[in-house]
Amino acid sequence: MEAKTKDLMVFVETNEDGTAKNVGLELLTPGREVADKQGGALSAVIIGNNVQAAVDAVNAHGADQIIVVEGEEYAHYTTDAYRKALIAVVEKYAPTSMMIGATNNGRDLAPRVSCFLKTGLTADCTGVDIDEATGKVAWTRPTFGGNLMATILCPDSFPQMGTVRPGVFKKGEEVAPHAEIIKEDIHVDPSEIRTTVIEVIKEEGGESVDLEGADVIVSGGRGVGGPEGFETIKLLADAMGGVVGSSRAAVDAGWISHAHQVGQTGKTVAPKIYVACGISGAIQHVAGMSGSDTIIAINKDADAPIFDIADYGVVGNLFDVIPPLAAEFNK
Amino acid sequence: MNILVCVKQVPDTNEIKIDPVKNTLIRQGVPSIVNPFDGYALEAAARIKDKDPDTRIVVMSMGPEQAKAALKECVAIAADQAYLISGRKFGGSDTLATSYIISEAAKMIEEKEGIKFDAFFFGKQAIDGDTAQTGPEFAEHLGLPQITYGLEAFVEGDTIKVNKEVDGGIEVLSAPLPCVVTFTKPAFDPRFPTIKRKLAANKAKIPVISDEELVLDETKIGLNGSPTRVKKTHVPQKKTGGMKIQEETAEDSAKKLYDALSNAGVL
Q: With contacts defined as CB-CB under 8 Å, which chain A residues touch B37?
């Protein structure tokens, strides 16, 4: 399609309580920069049911225009409903570029929309800028398991689309709201929504593992030695107000469920503090956590590669180091 | 029940090393494997076949001649038939062009096999490109429903039930067939091939669908049909290690770490 404006549009995903997911607010930060360089406005699109809280948050983070699509059919994410609504908005407003948070839902939705529009989509970006030579968006992303970074352009199709990894950009300071708010009346007939949720099974113990939203993650790896070793990891996670993560080795050994796994074949995370305990630092793990603000490693092998990327490294047995460390946090 | 499983042969990214002088990827000597997530998709199809032995599992891959090795591995594990989609005109395709080519190839395979596929299984992403786009884009080309991040699938009449991994647990979704499902790592291990199947797979004939047989609009395939362009690549700068703590006792190390974090304002 042709771009009718120089605007950049951010798709702000909502939670089921109508609040904005953090990543949507984060994207307004690089969104503002790119929109300014493009010489256009920063637009946001919010789809959901009763999303006033999300609209207020997006407005407080500096969007120039907010397009709101509300309806009961959007209360729970479905590919079919969100796809239809987002395509309708993009076709009407025709932005020159578009960012979508690279959450599971974002990565389910974005390729449906870009493929329908026959435009390019760059996945799971960790950097977004304007290419000086062409004026196009330069999307930078890790590939080959984090071994290589690629910068990708979409020179001739619109909108130039990318999904952007959560936690890479920081939410900006709140500003005086000034957005033009436009409600779009787009509805999807229930018969057009082909998938149905028939059951929700919570993880054993009822705990939800929100790795992507956590400020602190304490992860255990092969050095944890067994499922009971994760009690020690949990001790530190609780003391630091964080959640428990793990490396692939611990998941493959059956010590903990895949929902906890951080890395290329698990979740990509960027918390404020990441503590790697008994994790050697294989590239596939590092690819999933290297964006963390502060990395702490606890490992008895002084030569473990994890120490090369850690801001703080403790050489020692995790079972000896964690209890007194947890006690310090609990003081 | 007929299932098409789409697989990609990828370099084992765990084995990739960086040339410390040139700061580039060393691809030589890196083993090629079936993308692990595609292996989970194949296992999901095999589990459906375990319950309904009339199920036909066809695997398809787009790639060079060498990708036949990956297809043979799939035949050894569970597939009844394999097809390779290969041609110079297909080279340089990004996900939009690739998904278009394989969606058209799927139609051609349906004709060749004289069947209609009820389900199209993909890995959630390939471990080299990591885009997670080809499955959903394939679904878009064919106008099909999709379920992503599947762990296991069950067929019930003309619907498919999929356990989908979500934060904090599992959602069970259902969709009418035909449907596209992409799979992530389940809690169980995929099966290994038996020796007998392995020997048979070695002799299996894998038909190649070339760019001369599958004639497509050249503005939609290859580099010309790809809206994205790789402008440059670089090896990420390695972070250098920070403060290392190794005191006499673990207690002292713990205390030193805590103090360092406090002083740096990390907490």
A: 265
Q: What residue ranges define each of the domains in chain A, with the CATH number in brackets? A: 8-192 (3.40.50.620), 204-330 (3.40.50.1220)
CATH code, domain with B49: 3.40.50.620
- Which stretch of A150-159, A230-239, B23-32, B149-158 has the lowest confidence by average pLDDT? B23-32
Other C-beta atoms lying within 10 Å of the C-beta of residue B234? 12
Q: Which of A198-207, B17-26, B85-94 has the highest mean pLDDT?
A: B85-94
Whether residues B110 and B186 fall in one domain: yes
Report how many domains make up chain B. Answer: 2
Q: Tell me whether residues B235 and A114 touch, CB distance under 8 A.
A: no
What pTM did the predictor assign? 0.88
Containing structural domain, residue B244? 237-267
Distances (CA, A) of B192 to A248, A325, B150, B196: 20, 44, 21, 12
Cβ contact, residue pair A209, B233, below 8 Å: no
User: Residues A14, A48: contact at Cβ < 8 Å?
Assistant: yes
Q: CA-to-CA distance for A234 and A244, rounded, in angstroms?
A: 6
Mutation site for A-interface testing, chosen from B124, B133, B154, B177 by largest number of A Cβ within 10 Å: B133
Q: What DSSP designation does B40 have? A: H
